[in-house]
Design brief:
It is built from 4 helices and 5 strands; from the N terminus they run βααββββαα. With 181 residues, it is an alpha+beta fold. It has a single domain, classed as Hotdog Thioesterase (Thiol Ester Dehydrase, Chain A), CATH 3.10.129. The chain has a 5-stranded antiparallel β-sheet with strand order 1-3-4-5-2, with helices on both faces. The radius of gyration is 17 Å and the shape is globular. The mean pLDDT is 94. This is Acyl-CoA thioesterase. It comes from Larkinella humicola. InterPro entries: HotDog_dom_sf.
Length: 181
């Protein structure tokens, strides 16, 4: 069972680092477009395991449920290149009775240059019937604890969100250079 620790505050955003592997690049030494998904999904799996002590296999085993991908929106802003260190950020930006939207974005290692943004919409399903079902109460409580609260998903389009992320990165850069004042 998914158990939330009432004494703990859960991060709404997770981040990790990775390096672009030669085998994952095209002839121009750019990360292959399809490989962004692998990098994101591997990062998210590791992030939720370490930050939330949770794994999708836990849903499968304990609840006989899973999330299945329903839709992707992806923007290739700048190429990630062979041997480049990257930062991958992931966060849940929308939760409903049977749906989640996970937002991923990738930057250079300094966190200042946006490389890519992905929205992945997933539906909650019973692995027994293969049909969409409402989130279990424990799962819903977990999602509520980790979901970013200040993203108005229904009134935001993808391109506007890319601009917002870019602005946040610029703001963080300016705060970092001024010492946070």
């Amino acid at each position: 069972m998914i158990k939330l620790d009432p004494t703990r505050t859960y991060p709404h955003e997770t981040e990790s680092r990775t390096i672009v592997r030669f085998q994952d690049c095209d002839p121009l030494q750019h990360l292959n477009n399809a490989k962004y998904f692998d990098y994101y999904f591997n990062a998210r799996e590791d992030q939720v395991a370490t930050q939330y002590n949770f794994s999708p296999a836990q849903l499968f085993r304990e609840y006989k449920t899973s999330w299945v991908v329903y839709q992707h929106q992806i923007a290739y802003v700048r190429p990630a290149t062979v041997n480049e260190w990257l930062r991958i950020v992931s966060r849940i930006i929308y939760v409903s009775e049977d749906t989640i939207v996970t937002e991923y974005y990738m930057t250079d290692d300094s966190g200042r240059q946006l490389k890519n943004v992905l929205w992945m919409t997933s539906k909650y399903v019973s692995v027994v019937t293969g049909r969409r079902i409402p989130h279990d109460p424990d799962v819903m409580a977990f999602l509520a604890a980790i979901c970013v609260r200040d993203v108005d998903f229904h009134n935001l389009n993808f391109n506007d969100r890319i601009r917002q992320i870019k602005e946040e990165l610029v703001q963080e850069k300016m705060e970092g250079e001024s010492g946070g004042d």
